[in-house]
Automatic annotation (TrEMBL):
<dbReference type="InterPro" id="IPR008930">
    <property type="entry name" value="Terpenoid_cyclase/PrenylTrfase"/>
</dbReference>
<dbReference type="Pfam" id="PF07678">
    <property type="entry name" value="TED_complement"/>
</dbReference>
<dbReference type="InterPro" id="IPR011626">
    <property type="entry name" value="Alpha-macroglobulin_TED"/>
</dbReference>
<protein>
    <submittedName>
        <fullName>PZP protein</fullName>
    </submittedName>
</protein>
<dbReference type="GO" id="GO:0005615">
    <property type="term" value="C:extracellular space"/>
</dbReference>
<dbReference type="InterPro" id="IPR050473">
    <property type="entry name" value="A2M/Complement_sys"/>
</dbReference>
<feature type="domain" description="Alpha-macroglobulin-like TED">
    <location>
        <begin position="16"/>
        <end position="173"/>
    </location>
</feature>
Amino acid sequence: TEALKVGGVSICLCVSLQGGVDNEATLTAYITIALLEIPLPVTHSVVRNALFCLETAANQKENHVYTKALLAYAFALAGNRDQRKALLDSLEKEAVRKDGSVHWQRPGKEPEADLPFHRYRAPSAEVEMTAYVLLAQLTSQPAPAQEELVSASLIAKWISSQQNPNGGFSSTQ
């Protein structure tokens, strides 16, 4: 577990809850998102420094799709439209479109097995990264554009298809 103390508020994150991605950018994005959701202003020194680190990470060519989704949401919360758009554009190229819905999956993943009487449910990391993309699309200032809302509805369709019979999700988050 990692802990960060900001203005008397202690924030703890379990490093194992990183969608299978173990790098500093992912952990920094989690912490930055938490700080921005408190909400701490983007002018706060800790947030400003974290966003600087995330901008550096966002410019790396080989970011994992999960990391890109987290970064897109962090920049959306921070109001950085250019970084948000660049990451969403990159994620759009990696999207999986199937049955009128859109989602993201881990690179090199085996194709889903279509078995009779069995409904495939994606691993929790894929539900989480797709949800972060949805949050990034809907967290826009000013309000999301019509095309973003249409795209968001296709993502929401996939996420809702991943619900278990009790209405929950297979997720660590």
